[in-house]
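Supplementary Methods, section 5.1.

A reviewer requested that the exact input to the structure prediction be made available. We therefore reproduce it here, unchanged from the version used in the analyses.
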Amino acid sequence: MSIFKNLLQCYIQEFYEVTLLNTQKSCAQKLEEVNHMADKWEKSVSIPNPACPVEEVSV
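The structure derived from this sequence is encoded token-by-token as follows.
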């Protein structure tokens, strides 16, 4: 496994433990943090990967 994948896995595991398993945070707080993390991820991923296409979904 590459260093990048290991770091990403550690980051996700830490986020899961610190945020999602935290009984002191409300569901709304957890959802806000998940959305913030997703926004940061989308902005940081700027190179398209043809093996993993992303389709836009309208809500």
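The CA atoms of residues 49 and 55 lie 12 Å apart. These observations are discussed further in the main text.
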